[in-house]
Design goal:
The chain has 9 helices and 17 strands. With 312 residues, it is α/β, with parallel strands linked by helices. The protein has 2 domains: 4-166, Rossmann fold (3-Layer(aba) Sandwich), CATH 3.40.50; 198-311, Rossmann fold (3-Layer(aba) Sandwich). The termini are far apart. The structure holds flavin-adenine dinucleotide. Residues 203-205, 229-232, 243-248, 260-262, 264, 266-267, 270, 280-283, 286, 299-301 line the site of flavin-adenine dinucleotide (FAD).
Length: 312
């Protein structure tokens, strides 16, 4: 049976749901499925052991992993991966940073953004900003290194109690050219954009940073996260970690509001897996209406206050 290794994605002492989604993808390839946790400590390993279908958690605890630095992790993953047929990472910032380095060390081509497993060596993945879906077959006997599109796989349950194997740090050369300098991130009380079940996004049509307050008010009523189009980010209305789309975040909320967003293909690429899409645009010919489940031709400055008052 093929052996599958998932590299755990975690931050601030918490295993991220992207790991569970990558495990879900891996479980469609083989039952012989292990998770590798690189951390300083052991709290992530026990969280990973709870994910349904995981067989073993390989836990390597080392000072070097206090921060998730791809340059440091890559040689370690490559060494551990030696006995595995598949190495999967979630297609998050973490996985997209780490996978190419592992690919270079192992000298195997990387499969990017698996959307579905058709057969153990046949996958579907998006190309041309999600406008076409490619089916690829990897030749027999070749190790497979891939990232998994988290929006395409559901999170698994947490009723497992997999073996946690304390694993020796492999004796590989850890590069010293990359060091941790600090992290700056936006703090928000709202749910994370990539896991929120409802997302309210605003585009250029919102007009200003001040006008985005109206979207925040609606989001707080619905327990939603707030996203934006690239035009809204480029205009300085919101920070760029809120960008949804091809060069932003790929998300799959149950409910997505596109407010004052025209529906460019690069934006749609980020919401293809969303459940219900509600578009509000004052231009009845806006392309967003071609993919919206509910299309409302209206001025968003009239629509949002009315919706908020109805919710009240
Ligand atoms: C390589 C590349 C990568 C890109 N990546 C991304 C990406 O990741 N994400 C992304 O979003 N874009 C991306 N873009 C940009 C993309 O092509 C579009 O330019 C962008 O999505 C447009 O944003 P928008 O819909 O907010 O603005 P616009 O296209 O200007 O649309 C604004 C809309 O608001 C409507 N509107 C105006 N006022 C109101 C009102 N009062 N009430 C209701 N509606 C109103 C207008 O009718 C219009 O339809 C990328 C482009 C390139 C070339």
């Amino acid at each position: 049976m093929s052996k599958v290794l998932i590299v755990a994605d975690h931050f601030d002492g918490q295993l991220l749901s992207s790991t569970s989604k990558a495990v879900n993808c891996g479980s469609q390839i083989s039952e012989d499925l292990d998770v590798l946790v690189l951390e300083k400590g052991s709290e992530i390993a026990s969280q990973a052991a709870a994910i349904d279908v995981v067989k073993n958690v390989l836990s390597i605890s080392n000072e070097a992993f206090e921060q998730p630095i791809a340059a440091i992790m890559a040689p370690v993953v490559a060494e551990v991966a030696d006995v595995y047929d598949y190495i999967l990472l979630p297609s998050t910032t973490f996985g997209r940073d780490l996978a190419p380095r592992i690919s270079a060390i192992l000298d195997v081509n990387q499969v990017t953004d698996i959307m579905s497993v058709e057969e153990p060596r046949i996958f579907k993945r998006p190309i041309y900003a999600g406008n076409a879906i490619q089916t690829i077959k990897i030749s027999d006997g070749q190790k497979i290194l891939a990232t998994v599109r988290t929006a395409s796989f559901k999170e698994l349950g947490n009723a497992n109690n997999a073996n946690v194997i304390d694993t020796e740090m492999p004796s590989v050369e850890i590069p010293s050219h990359t060091r941790y300098g600090g992290v700056q991130s936006e703090k928000t009380e709202r749910p994370d954009l990539q896991v929120a079940s409802t997302v309210i996004s605003g585009g250029r049509g919102v007009g200003s940073a001040e006008n985005f307050e109206l979207l925040y008010e609606l989001a707080d009523k619905l327990g939603a996260s707030v996203g934006a189009s690239r035009a809204a980010v480029d205009a300085g209305f919101v920070p760029n970690d809120m960008q949804v789309g091809q060069t932003g975040k790929i998300i799959a909320p149950d409910l997505y509001f596109a407010l004052g967003i025209s529906g460019a293909i690069q934006h749609i690429a980020g919401i293809k897996d969303a459940g219900t899409i509600v578009a509000v645009n004052k231009d009845a010919d806006a392309p967003i209406f071609e993919i919206a489940d509910i299309g409302i031709v209206a001025d968003l400055f009239e629509f949002i206050p009315e919706l908020i008052s109805k919710l009240d």
